[in-house]
Amino acid sequence: MATETREQFLHQDGRPGGSDLRDSFFTSRYEDALAWARKFAFFQYPFVTACCGMEYMSVTGPRFDTDRFGMTLPRFTPRQADLLLVVGTITHRQAPILRRVWEQMSDPKWVMSFGNCTNTGGPYNNYAVVQGIDSIVPVDIYIPGCPPRPEAVIDGLLKLQERIRRERSDRPVENIHGKQPALDFQAGEAGRLAPGQVKIHDV
Amino acid sequence: MVEESAQPSAPEDPLLQRLRDKFGEAVVSTHSYRGDRTAIIDRGSLVATCEWLRDDPQNQFDMLMDVTAVDYLGRRPRFEVVYHLYSIEKNHRARIKVALEEDDVKVASVVSVWSGANWLEREAWDLYGIQFDGHPELKRIYLYEEFEGHPLRKDYPKEKRQPLIGPGAPEGAADGGESSS
Ligand code: SF4
């Protein structure tokens, strides 16, 4: 039964809240509604440095189409982005730049580690390559693969969405709460996960 | 280098033969196999040799493809600097090598011969620590200025890491500009 006219919203005496009002809204908790909105509206920042970028193009293109899951337009400024995709090998020389990009993003923000190089250094265990970007920025989801299949990326994206749906006080809902755990992250806590963070193979 | 000169019966490559005729003693040894020719040159004659290779109408090596180095750890001389030459005009190639002792890793820059040598020599300096005398701006090209040592040398510790930020980084190192974000 749809509510179509203004009169249907009103009681007989003109007060709001007519008998059909219950059909026109649903009840939820504030945090639930917020999380629901967030998880379907990623503004991604692709930090692409190496061959995984080819797979990134594939997964965001029309064939695999992450737009279906809300990972839409890439923003090429971190200040407009909330999902940092780190795609490709990160060298020690590149590390301060990545760190700075992450710092420029405003809360709430998430980091996806895309491919083995960003997870662990991948095939490169040498003087040049950071052995896992989680020593520089806090990672929310790790996608394995060299490069990952698009299905793996989509799987990781869905798991990240599931995690955002469950996000509560371990991350502030709004900055006005005065708590910014992501900003309190200390570079060097390699491999340490914040409460509620899950690695992809734990889910 | 012994194996490279031990080719007594093979007919000498014409280009290498002319190189020998021209520079005599400065050509330490030569080697060629199916047009893949290599000459080891005395360090002092490198620039003169390169100019001749570039300018002689029969050579016309107008392109320096690469400058790299090899670290023969434990051998003397320890280092070899390798120049790969190509002639666009003649479509032929040559390889020049200069051997360097460990305690004097210096060779003349060939930037004056091929200006493309600029970045290539910086790379060899960065990764092997070869010093090119006369290079206009010999500084690191791939690695950062804070990096110590030359990582492609065979005695560079395999496990050694020199991060700029994060675990193992020096105290107060650049953190990407946390305060200015
Ligand atoms: S994980 Fe593999 S494909 Fe991806 S950047 Fe590293 S080497 Fe390239």
Compact summary:
The complex is a heterodimer of chains A (203) and B (181). Chain A is α/β, with parallel strands linked by helices.
What report would you give on this structure?
The complex is a heterodimer of chains A (203) and B (181). Chain A has 203 residues and is of the alpha/beta class. Chain A has a domain at 40-168: Rossmann fold, CATH 3.40.50. Chain A has helices at residues 30-39, 52-60, 95-104, 116-120, 150-166, 181-184, and strands spanning 42-48, 71-74, 83-87, 110-114, 141-143. Chain B has 181 residues and is an alpha/beta fold. Chain B has 2 domains: 14-142, Beta Polymerase, domain 2 (2-Layer Sandwich); 144-181, no CATH class. Helices cover 20% and strands 25% of the residues of chain B. In chain B, 28% of the residues are buried. The A-B interface holds A 92-93, 95-100, 103-104, 126-128, 130-131, 135-136, 187-188, 190 and B 142-144, 151, 156, 158, 160-167, 169, 174-178, 181. Residues 50-52, 88-89, 115-117, 122-123, 146-147 of chain A line the site of iron/sulfur cluster.
Which SSEs are present, and which pair or pack?
The complex is a heterodimer of chains A (203) and B (181).
Chain A: H1 30-39, E1 42-48, H2 52-60, E2 71-74, E3 83-87, H3 95-104, E4 110-114, H4 116-120, E5 141-143, H5 150-166, H6 181-184
Parallel strand pairs in A: 1-2, 1-3, 3-4, 4-5
Chain B: H1 2-5, H2 14-23, E1 27-33, E2 36-41, H3 46-55, E3 63-71, E4 79-87, E5 92-100, E6 106-108, H4 117-128, E7 131-133
Parallel strand pairs in B: 2-5, 6-7
Antiparallel strand pairs in B: 1-2, 3-4, 4-5
The complex binds iron/sulfur cluster.
The site of iron/sulfur cluster (SF4) has 12 residues of chain A, from helix 4.
